[in-house]
Design goal:
By secondary structure, this protein is an alpha+beta fold. The chain has 21 helices and nine strands.
Amino acid sequence: MGLWLLLVTLACPIFFVSEAPGNDFSSHLATAWLAHDGFAGGPWAAWYRFDLVPLPYWLPTLLLAPLTTLLGPPLGLQVLLAGLLAALPLALRAVERAAGREPSATATALALLAGFNWAYWLGELSFLLGLPAALWAMAAWLRLGADPRARRLAAFAAWTVAAYLAHIYALCAVLGFMAVSSLLALLGRARVSGAQWASWILPLGLFGLGAWLILGGKGAAAHQGGLVFDFAPWRLADSLALPFMITVGPRWWAAIMPAIVLGLGLLSDRRRWDLRLLGAGAGFWLLAWAGPAGLETPFGLEDIGRRFSPWGVLLLAAGLGPPRRAALRRLSWAAVGLFAVVRVGDAWRAHWRHRPVVAAIGGLVAQVPAGARVLPLLRLPTPTAADFRVHRSVNRVVYERQAYSPHVFARSGQQPLRHVRGGDHRRVDDLQISAADWAFYDFALVQVAPHTPPWAPLLAHGTQVAEAGGFRLYRLDRARAASSPATPASTAASTGGKASAGAPSGSVTSSAGPP
């Protein structure tokens, strides 16, 4: 009963705001809204198209399209996010049962508290969906060992395909779990069923397909670069903190609770440990530390290793079990309970403080006429994490005003959506604006610091209409732009796609001066 109450208390803040405070959520909503009008075109055919190829990352669109049709864009996403909070602990309990263990209430609580992780605050819906999908695929694979019937194989195939369609890292987690479990079974001279061996064909085939589509197709340069490694000891604690990241205070605060629970779990009865879960959990946790810290690409430093930390921590907790002594079990529950209070308070605070900003942006978006073309720009000298939670909110014009935004995600090899004009999405920190751009767009929505003078190129091409929530809306004069030159790079320098130390991983910041 207590866990269900915690779930409801955690889910409530999601419904506080019309747009959850994650970088990418508005882009996922816009893509789903476009998809619900039909993949073949519809009123958006002049601006967007869908490539019907079996890419990973399709799952958010496939789930959100019907939800937004039935409930509308904001509520459809909110229902999906609330469902994800419940899906993660349910999936972990399925893994424990498949391993022949009684589900641990402590591990269930950890999985529930891991719902608001770093990926949530970045709005990475694909990765969030991949977390429970991969766990359910792991559970289905374990069941194949004791019950290799066709329906068990079908369940494994379904969850593996779901993990692939969610995120390529989710599929990698399934393969890693299968590899560790098979190796430990062989070392212990246990039997691996024929159905389990045969099941390797599907995830390996999907991995090959995904790797080819992501790395070998058009735009492959966007996904290639030099690997960066960082073996700093602090990253061990960081790999514990990331699944439980809070928005206030030092990040290491979030590592204390899982460290206490796992440390006390080491004092449990070793005869009750599950080596398959512990082996996979330890492998994922160490990969989050010693694996590649990132991939240096034209779009900045994209994280790799840390993505495996949620599966690592949760599988370790599930494989250990509670401490033997009652006093230590109470201490473990006290750590979970105290951190639950912190997590609930942090979630409520972050969503509540997000409300006025979202309302202000909504007021600006409401002034955009239906069918207009809106250019998003970011001109902040030192953006904060809070700034990055709204810098893609311009995509609301798609589903609220049936307008065009070039920033709806559409990178070749990653998203099924493509822009008819330009192919890939236009980054908001790209401040080199061509004469053709000035002549194409009707409005510009610019994120700026307060009390800063207007940016000269915008004044030369348009008129400010309104300002709210750290954004300024400009109406552009397309007739004037047709005879003017492009904005020179000297007055609109771009960052070159490098992420700043203070920005969320995968984001970019502008080094240009005040707007």
